[in-house]
TrEMBL record:
Parts forming coiled coils: none
Protein name in UniProt: Putative iron-only hydrogenase system regulator
Protein species of origin: Clostridium celatum DSM 1785
One Pfam assignment: TM1266-like
Family matches, as SUPFAM superfamilies: ACT-like
Highest taxon, organism lineage: Bacteria
Length: 82
């Protein structure tokens, strides 16, 4: 069953890892329902991504993003199934 999740990511050096981050996001474009990014003057970006999908797919996306050096990721997944 599908679930809704919000993935929060902090990119500590967006100039270095933004391209890899966006590449992974594009692999999962069918699951992404919305994205909001906030760049900070201090050279950090905060990105929030709303997704729907199977739990394995959400975890796979979160894992890939979390493996990028300098990217911190947390995910909140709804208990209710769609």
């Amino acid at each position: 069953m599908k679930r809704i999740a919000v993935i929060s990511a902090i990119l500590e050096n967006p100039k270095k890892n933004q391209e890899e981050f966006n590449g992974i996001i594009s692999e999962f474009r069918g699951s992404i329902r919305g994205r909001m990014g906030i760049p900070f003057e201090e050279g950090i970006s905060v990105i929030s991504i709303t997704v729907t999908g199977e739990l394995d797919e959400i975890n796979k996306l979160t894992g890939k993003l979390g493996n990028i050096p300098g990217v911190l990721v947390k995910t909140a997944i709804a208990k209710k199934e769609l």
